[in-house]
Write a structure and sequence with these properties.
This protein starts with a strand and ends with a helix. The chain has 86 residues and is α+β, with helices and mostly antiparallel strands. The protein is globular, with a radius of gyration of 12 Å.
Length: 86
Amino acid sequence: GEYEGGIKKWRANKVQVTVSSGKVTDIEILEHKENQKPEFTGKLYDRVIEAQSLQVDTISGATLTSKAYLKSVENALLKAQNKNER
């Protein structure tokens, strides 16, 4: 899944989401414009996997960046869903 990053493309990112037995089991960042530390994305993606939802708390002090990273996960899941509906 990809997110274009908004107007200035600062938060562009691309992820690979692994789904097994209908559950998100792994999220891997493939590309990103911001130089985020793995601890940032790891913490955010761990919340998604634990909750099995995109409705998780963002990282304090990085709300817009968190939302951009969550958007790429959402886009990946929508892409997979659309592919399976065909």
